[in-house]
Amino acid sequence: MQRLFNDLFQQARPAGLQRKFHYEPSSELIEALRPEYQERLDSNFRHPDSFQLNGYSLAEFKAVYVGLLVLSAIHEYICYPWDKHGQPISESSLVMVKRRFQWISKLSSISGVPENTCNTIVKELTLRPDNRSFTSLCITPFVPLDSRGDTLAVAPQFPLTSAVDENALRQFSYTYPALFSAQNTQKEETMRSQLRAGNPRYKVDFSVPLPDGSTEIDALIEDEATSTVVLAELKWLRKPYKPLERVEREKDLEKGKSQLELIRAYSRAHPVFLLERGKLSRSLSNYEKVHHILLVRDYWHWIEPEDSIAILDFDEFLAQFRGSSSLHDLMTGLLSYRWLPIEGQHFYVDYTATSVNGATIESPLFHDGRR
């Protein structure tokens, strides 16, 4: 790959700070880079590729975005070695600028996605004045340089550092709330399918309504060998982007806790109802341990464990669930919360100050590892 980059670097020769350089990456270089960025997106995206956005699938969106990441990575490499050769970086080349049709044609060629679909995706990744309250260059990396939007610029560092999985769904939910709401039901089904396939050792069931109609048990997990049962509520909460969204997410968490309280109260008053429905092998009163757990993905806050009710991170639960041989031991370990990161050991925090017009705001910056 280094040879391919070196060959490309020899093509690009800017003259002076205001002279742009031009280059055309080879298909061999593009294909050499594709697996790295495809793997990055595949590992970050947890929604199925079949998830439908605005007339295209998540798989098509990912393919186009991989193409954008590959082009951004190549441009970053071409820009920044210049200072090593004693020549200043050509400032006018720090962003990629192309006509819209050129972007669409190139991304279609790299991704294999039809040009009309690429056009829709690029349009929705383009900064617009009407959505400025909930966007950034990480969410909409294409910036129009004329009133018609025929020429688009991209600063490579933004897509390269973007949490694209979160940003893509956030943009979709803001722009098409009705479509997003209809599709959003797939999230809990994804969580259920992962639990269903997670460990054949345990008996797992889903969506068990309470006979009084007050709520339902999202997931029911039984380990008869260790006399342990988990009754769980599943929540997949998108990370908040604005303060008001944080309030809404926390309401969802509290709703989940309230549902667990209803389940706990009914189960204790009627311990045989799951046995009578064939969901468990014995009465709830005959198990050594019965846990009522809020399993949450992506965004949650601390809820103090109280009388069998507790909160756990879904991904941590799933990772340990897959390799466990005892539900009793699994829950004992998870509810010790030793899997949570410890400040000073797993991460550290710096506070950075930003001043504007005499006002200063200090913000925490979290770093991985020790100081």
* Helix proportion range: 40-55%
Q: What distance lies between the first and last C-alpha atoms, to the nearest angstrom?
A: 34 Å
Number of helices: 13
In N-to-C order, the SSE pattern is HHHEHHEEHHHHEEEHHEEHHEE
Beta-strand percent range? 15-25%
Whole-number count of domains? 3
By DSSP, the count of extended strands is 10
Mean pLDDT: 87
Most strands sheet: 5 strands, mixed
- Poorly predicted runs are none
Shape: elongated
Query: What order do the strands of the largest sheet run in, or round the barrel if closed?
Result: 4-5-6-7-8
Question: Rounded to an integer, what's the Rg over CA atoms?
Answer: 25 Å
Question: From the helix content, strand content and strand pairing, which structural class follows?
Answer: alpha+beta
Give an overview of the whole structure.
The structure is a single chain. With 371 residues, the protein is of the alpha+beta class. The chain has 3 domains: 2-179, no CATH class; 186-334; 341-371, no CATH class. The chain has 13 helices and 10 strands. The strands form 3 sheets. It has a 5-stranded mixed sheet with strand order 4-5-6-7-8, sandwiched between helices. Strands 1-3-2 form a 3-stranded antiparallel sheet. Strands 9-10 form a two-stranded antiparallel sheet. A hairpin with a 2-residue loop joins strand 9 (347-356) and strand 10. Helix 2 (27-44) crosses helix 3 (58-79).
Show the helix and strand layout.
Layout (H helix, E strand, L loop, with lengths): L1 H10 L15 H18 L13 H22 L16 E4 H12 L3 H10 L18 E2 L6 E4 L2 H5 L2 H12 L1 H7 L2 H11 L6 E7 L6 E8 L4 E9 L6 H27 L3 H4 L12 E9 L11 E5 H9 L4 H8 L12 E10 L2 E10 L3
Parallel strand pairs: 6-7, 7-8
Antiparallel strand pairs: 1-3, 2-3, 4-5, 5-6, 9-10
Helix pairs in contact: 2-3, 3-4, 4-5, 7-8
